[in-house]
Specification:
With about 260 residues, the protein is α/β, with parallel strands linked by helices. Helix content is about 20%, strand content about 30%. It folds into two domains: about 120 residues, Beta Barrel (Elongation Factor Tu (Ef-tu), domain 3); about 140 residues, 3-Layer(aba) Sandwich (Rossmann fold). The protein has a seven-stranded antiparallel sheet. Strands 10-9-8-11-12 form a five-stranded parallel sheet, with helices on both faces. Strand 5 and strand 6 form a beta hairpin. The chain is globular and about 55 Å long. It starts with a strand and ends with a helix. The structure holds flavin-adenine dinucleotide.
Length: about 260
């Protein structure tokens, strides 16, 4: 499946929204999950092929040619216009996906597989806690939009500074807290410290926390030690790792997750 870039908007100095459309999305089918994501294929600039391509064929090409898979959340699927919105974090010119979004032009194509997902808010919970960095804002936004307006919902979003906030649509009864890395001594602990300083409502809560690996792990550890939560049912996992390309991260992720179990 592939989409053609139909709209590009700058949401903040670190976030670009791309809307994909066209006949290549004819087979797109949404899931029930609010964190649903696609596995998109970004191709090196000098590659001798372009979307649509046979994945199996191009995967076996040399390192300078083969596509780089990256996961991106479905911010929105408009079933009337059959258009797909994805919000990309831009983080300099390193890597493939962020750099692709920064250079994207109307008509460019992006091939992908999916969507798949793993989380939707548990409506049986008394209240909901969602937290994450820029890469998780789409999943958190889509999740919050599915939670009834009157239900208690605490949301923590960490970004570099106030200029990196993006429009977050939610009921005024949901509490949205923006946390700034630039405002604290240790940016890696910014999200954890904000969560720790919050008084939680009574009752059972449902958890969704995603973002940078070390930051997410610190928060997971905190919940395991301080709250009697069922860690298996909480959706807490890393989306990316600082100073690691996605390939480097995936190559160590299994062991990293196994090591994380020792935190319990
Ligand atoms: C299920 C899932 C859903 C995701 N949804 C989204 C989404 O909707 N939007 C989104 O932007 N990302 C999302 N991500 C994260 C995204 O897949 C990774 O950030 C990915 O590494 C970006 O690829 P890249 O080619 O731009 O950089 P890479 O080639 O992977 O990395 C190059 C360098 O950039 C750094 N880097 C990578 N990501 C970031 C970042 N977010 N901030 C700062 N530095 C970074 C790396 O540590 C590395 O040093 C999701 C990840 C998962 C697993």
């Amino acid at each position: 499946m592939f989409g053609e870039v139909e709209e590009i908007s700058i949401l903040s100095p670190s976030m670009i929204r791309i809307v994909l459309g066209g006949d290549g999305l004819d087979g797109f089918t949404v899931t029930d999950y609010t964190d649903q994501y696609v596995n998109a294929y970004f191709i090196p600039e000098n590659a001798s092929y372009s979307p649509p391509f046979e994945l199996e064929e191009v995967r076996s090409l040399g390192d300078d040619q083969r596509p780089r898979p990256r996961r991106f959340t479905v911010r929105k699927w408009d079933s009337d216009t059959r258009r797909l919105t994805i919000d990309f974090v831009t983080h300099g010119d390193q890597g493939y996906a962020g750099a692709w979004a920064q250079k994207a032009q109307i008509g460019d194509r992006l091939q992908f597989k999916g969507p798949n997902g793993g989380y939707k808010p548990d409506m049986k919970a008394d209240w909901h806690l969602l937290a994450g960095d820029e890469s998780a804002i789409s999943a958190i936004s889509a999740s919050v939009e599915s939670i009834p307006e009157t239900k208690t919902c605490l949301v923590f979003l960490v970004v570099d500074g106030p200029e990196n906030r993006i429009k977050f649509t939610s009921s005024h009864l949901h509490q949205i807290k923006w946390v700034y890395r630039s405002a604290v001594l240790d940016p890696d602990l910014a999200l954890l410290e904000a969560i720790k300083s919050q008084e939680f409502p009574a009752g059972e809560f449902d958890i969704f926390i995603h973002g940078e690996a070390s930051e997410v792990r610190n928060i997971r550890k905190y919940f395991i030690s301080e709250y009697e939560i069922n860690i298996e049912s909480a959706s807490i996992s890393p989306y990316w790792r600082r100073d690691h390309t996605d390939e480097a991260w995936r190559s160590i992720k299994k062991q990293w997750l196994a090591d994380q179990e020792m935190d319990i």
